[in-house]
Specification:
The protein is α/β, with parallel strands linked by helices and 153 residues long. The protein is built from 6 helices and 5 strands, in the order αββααβαβααβ. The chain has one domain: 3-Layer(aba) Sandwich (Cytidine Deaminase, domain 2). The mean pLDDT is 89.
Length: 153
């Protein structure tokens, strides 16, 4: 019997977590790891104790902000990072698995928190119809290793 690679296990978990999202527009999951151990998990959606978009606005999702983004969304990466920090975990040198490559604001948070590697499943730029993955470009420019997930590797 072939044992699964940790990359496959963690990305599978991130994909499963995305199904917990209350977002009507996109479901994203994230797993933070260090030395093959899970530090934290997250998925996108509104802050706990506010509205669940799929229940409050099932047809359209939450109202947009001034840039057209979801006004209530906390991104999966943010949730994973915030939960880890809230519980005293060190993120220095950790790896983030996410089902969607980070947006630029999340990339800044990832870099600042000391995460050294990001593995993503799908492109944020492709999802948003942008010409480049600004978050990936930012992270790469400042020395964070970013790779697109390939099963079995």
């Amino acid at each position: 019997m072939k044992r699964p690679e940790f990359n496959d296990i963690f990305m599978h978990l991130a994909s499963e977590l995305s199904s917990r999202s209350h977002c009507v527009k996109a479901q994203v999951g994230a797993v933070l790891t260090k030395d093959t151990r899970i530090i934290s998990i997250g998925y996108n959606g509104p802050p706990a104790g506010t509205h669940n978009c799929d229940e409050e606005w099932p047809e359209t999702g939450c109202p947009g902000d001034s840039r057209g983004s979801c006004s209530l969304a906390v991104h999966a990466e943010e949730n994973a990072i915030l939960y880890a920090v809230k519980n005293g975990a060190s993120l220095e040198g950790s790896t983030l698995y996410t089902t969607l490559s980070p947006c630029l604001p999340c990339a800044r948070l990832i870099f600042t928190s000391g995460i050294k590697k990001v593995i993503y499943k799908k492109s944020y730029a492709h999802y948003k119809g942008l010409t480049s993955d600004e978050g990936v470009d930012f992270l790469t420019k400042f020395g964070v290793e970013v790779t697109k997930y390939v099963a079995g590797k």
